[in-house]
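Journal club prep, notes for RB
We'll compare a predicted complex against what the paper describes. Inputs for the zinc ion case:
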Amino acid sequence: MEEKHLILIGLILTYILVVYLFSRIGGRREIGKRRLFWISLFLTPLLGFAFFISSQHKKLVLYTEKRYKCEDCGYVFSEESECCPMCEKEGKINPLKKVDMYMT
Ligand SMILES: [Zn+2]
C-alpha cells in the first residue's frame, strides 16, 4: 500500500474517532448519541454541533415532575387530590397547587 493511502485511511479513522467522541455529548440532549453521530459523520461535526445546540436539554424533560403543594402546611404530594390530606385531618380544607418539581 502506498504511503498516501495510509495517510488518507489514518485521516478517515481519526475523523470517525473525533465524530464518535463528539457524539457522546449528544446523550445528554434529546437528540441522542446515535443521531448526533450520523449527522456529524455525514454533515461534519460543525453541523452536528448546530443540531446539538438546537436540541432540547434532556435533563429538564427527565427531571421535572408534577407535584401538588399545599400552601398552608407546605407539604408536597405526588398524587392529585381535591384538598390537602394533612390539613383535612385538622379540619381545614386547603386546595393543592400544581407545581413543577426539579428533581436532582
Ligand atoms: Zn396542608
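Talking point for the session: The chain is about 50% helix and 15% strand.
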